[in-house]
Amino acid sequence: xxxxxxxxxxxxxxxxxxxxxxxxxxxxxxxxxxxxxxxxxxxxxxxxxxxxxxxxxxxxxxxxxxxxxxxxxxxxxxxxxxxxxxxxxxxxxxxxxxxxxxxxxxxxxxxxxxxxxxxxxxxxxxxxxxxxxxxxxxxxxxxxxxxxxxxxxxxxxxxxxxxxxxxxxxxxxxxxxxxxxxxxxxxxxxxxxxxxxxxxxxxxxxxxxxxxxxxxxxxxxxxxxxxxxxxxxxxxxxxxxxxxxxxxxxxxxxxxxxxxxxxxxxxxxxxxxxxxxxxxxxxxxxxxxxxxxxxxxxxxxxxxxxxxxxxxxxxxxxxxxxxxxxxxxxxxxxxxxxxxxxxxxxxxxxxxxxxxxxxxxxxxxxxxxxxxxxxxxxxxxxxxxxxxxxxxxxxxxxxxxxxxxxxxxxxxxxxxxxxxxxx
Length: 423
Fold this sequence. Notes:
The protein is α+β, with helices and mostly antiparallel strands. 13% of the residues lie in helices and 32% in strands.
């Protein structure tokens, strides 16, 4: 699996005693592209807006193969932001690639774990700054269960009550966002540094990367501070009366009771967007998702659901403390879920994602809007074949078929027509 990286990093192979033949491959970067031997101490400086990193091994007598990779969470040490990418192999054979960069106030680094959850929860379990109800939102059913909530939605989101049964495609992604009425908690770390473009540029042509990094750290003089002020959307809070805030508290209490079984979302493609609030949202009005957006790049989750995204100087000046939206993508960059905005994100901040299970699957396009309406059926099982294997459910309940010869390999598919079963 390829790990998506952003900006400039120094990659260094850690000490290991592996007997496997291993390497790491960089592609799509401005500098540092190519395959690099995984000898202990090997260091490569890589730069570019967005590039990919693969860890590979070569079994004896075979071609190079991608190794399962795990993304580690970042930490700050001696003026450097550090993280590790390692192979998911026994410790003796593990290839650990240390990634580091001089910590700077011009960078924003978000990371976390993406998980899928069952839609039985009233609201998204990963958000405690806002009440976020992921689509599809059954507003009338919600108001039937919590009658005191009706005037809140009527005041903040009247269009949700009048919406036709078939909303616009874009509206299907926008979550229903309500304020909690509770004080927001500050999260993340703020970095304060001096401008040092010359020292950072010197890394690209340095023969001694350790020395160049030390000089960049000294020139930046970065200090670290925990966030003390929380930034969050007002989401229409100022428009509500005390009784309406009590209704939101009732909804929140009810939503906290059922347990949520969330599982890591592995191999999930994420898109990160900078969100510019609409005039109504800037004035404290409800969130409608109609503000301007700028796509910053993509990230991918490992088998643990871990992801990391860096918004850096390569994305242009003025990163500041942005409002960010994260989307999950399927089928050719088609979004299947999007978060409510994370407001005024700090330089280093953890953003854990909980995505409804429906948002982890390809969204069905409505009839008449598909590029390909019908592709026919595939025969996935032939009883005459001498090595025939019948399709079966995998542990996740998907219909799969892994034949040994020429028949199509099916990872996930529906049944067509009838079904015969022998008991």
